[in-house]
Amino acid sequence: MRLDLPLRSGEVALVGAGPGDVSLLTLAAAKLIGDCDAIVYDALVSDEVLNMAAVGTALILAGKRGGRPSASQDDICDRLIELANEGKRVVRLKGGDPFVFGRGGEEMRALAAASIRFRVIPGITAGVAAPAMAGIPVTDRSVNATLAFLTGHEASAKSRMDWKSLVEAFPVLVFYMGAKNLPQIAVRLLEAGLAESTPLAIIYAATLDEENTTIATLKEAANGTVTARSPSIVIIGDVVNERICWKD
Ligand code: SAH
């Protein structure tokens, strides 16, 4: 099946919008965004991407973002099903990739359970795009053969993660949603055995005009000398030392 075929009436596309820069949309995403009846989008989807919608497309903010009052996941699923049952051609637009910390799986299951026809359009995930923009290779033959993508929420008091095994298995760690918990993340990693001098990069608003990269050490993150704003990707490990800044 071609991913960019026009949506049928009553069909939903779970579409990855990429990290923000509209030129990083896939061709399928651009086509479907420009030719649908309704777009249900998350708060992290950039205005530039939403501007690709045709005049008359219903733009519905479904976003859930830390701390703000927002629709529950069930409400979002119900809304998608309702729109599809009205015969609308629906794009469910999510930042990055729909299945990377994007709850796309839950929405897919809800659509399948309601017998709604759907397709999935992968997107460029922030955990890959942000380091690339900062000139940091997420894998480098001289440094790592593996890497881990994690959510920073796991650093809270009720962490389910075995941090010691984590740092032993993965020389490079890429944290999503790590801005708020950055000090706790750093403390846990130090406790797990990483050196205080371990380099990290905080990449804020990757691919957008406000993009900004901060390089620091684990020690500086643990003691609050550096802080991070949301949305940021935090990448930790020696690949940060391989950085070559390629942007003006
Ligand atoms: N599905 C998304 C991730 C959603 S979780 C994806 O695949 O990229 C939200 C987190 O993604 C944010 O807290 C931040 O860590 C990261 N993120 C999303 N867009 C970003 C951007 N442009 N720059 C830096 N981080 C970003």
Automatic annotation (TrEMBL):
Which SUPFAM superfamilies does UniProt cross-reference here?
Tetrapyrrole methylase
Where is the Tetrapyrrole methylase domain positioned along the sequence? 12-221
Top-level taxon: Bacteria
What's one GO BP annotation on this UniProt entry?
siroheme biosynthetic process
Entries under Pfam families matching the protein: TP_methylase
Which pathway does the protein contribute to?
Answer: Porphyrin-containing compound metabolism; siroheme biosynthesis; precorrin-2 from uroporphyrinogen III: step 1/1
Root EC class? transferase
Question: What are the protein's UniProt keywords?
Answer: Methyltransferase, Porphyrin biosynthesis, S-adenosyl-L-methionine, Transferase
Annotated Gene Ontology MF terms? uroporphyrin-III C-methyltransferase activity
Family assignment from sequence similarity: Belongs to the precorrin methyltransferase family.
The name of this protein is: uroporphyrinogen-III C-methyltransferase
- Species the sequence originates in: Mariprofundus aestuarium
Kindly list the organism's lineage: Bacteria, Pseudomonadati, Pseudomonadota, Candidatius Mariprofundia, Mariprofundales
